[in-house]
Amino acid sequence: MDALIILSIIAFWFTTLICLKHYWSFLKDKREALEHVSDVTNTDPFEKKEKKKNRRAEIFSHVTKYADDFSDLGQRINFFSENHMVEEWLRKSGNPLKLTVARFQGLKIFLLIVGFIAGVLAVLIGLPFSQYMLVFNPVIGYFIPIILIKREVKKRQQALRRDLPDFMDTISTSLQAGVSLDQALREVILHFDGPIREEFTRFNQEIDLGVPREKAYRELLKRNENEEFQSLIKGLIQGLELGIPIAQTFKVQADDLRQIRQEQVKELAAKASPKVTLVTTFLIAPVSIMIIAGLMIMNMLMGDNSIFNLF
């Protein structure tokens, strides 16, 4: 009977592994098939990402609908997250989850309550350090949305900084070839992904709706805090007011940005040298000395010339 039970367990795990293997193969084949269909039909990958992002936002909206019940309380308990700060974070992060300020404020309180309930359950169950969980879980729940939205803002601005030089060079080349700025923006952004495309797609939509160009530029400034991007937009505003050639503006801004990036790389390299020296001095060197000393001691105690052989 025991042998039958053992064989059943082995068979169960064996079939489970086979199922997982075939499921992984199915996912791989599906991904390859979708990529092939996308290449054949010239489907824009950005549109698929946008659909996926919208679907994720819709699911998140259903999950966090209870946070709306705590929005008023969250707007009164606004430590480190006042309404104007939250509005700025959501704007600069691109708001991928389609959150409103009220729902964000309610989400903090909702997660605080969830953390408190989890701490109470930990105390009732008797988990180790449960008394600390009762205190820290609500605090962690409160600050999780703030930390995540700030991280999203930073990640988005870094992506903007990374793609900006290539974008400006491409726009400059198109303008020098005689293409208008609006047409160049519409064509070039199709070959980019991420914040660059999102921002200038929205910019083009505002222009189509009749928003004055200078106002649309200033909206771009409000949605992004990246210094290089702001310098570009301010240069465009100045060029619009003074009649400076736009192609030259893009070219100069791209060259300046690459120069700034080179200086930043040199600065990071200069800062890395003392850190490497510190690690070598306090970590690698002591370990190496201990290894050598250990080998010498082992040789003295257990080698052919051991000190015990002298007696």
TrEMBL record:
It is found in: Cell membrane. Keywords: Cell membrane, Membrane, Transmembrane, Transmembrane helix. It holds the Pfam family T2SSF. Its main location: membrane. One of its GO terms (cellular component) is plasma membrane. Gene3D superfamilies: Type II secretion system (T2SS), domain F (1.20.81.30). The chain crosses the membrane at residues 6-24, 107-126, 132-149, 276-302. It is a multi-pass membrane protein. The keyword Cell membrane applies. InterPro entries: T2SS_GspF_dom, T2SS_GspF_sf. This is Tight adherence protein C. It comes from Piscibacillus halophilus.
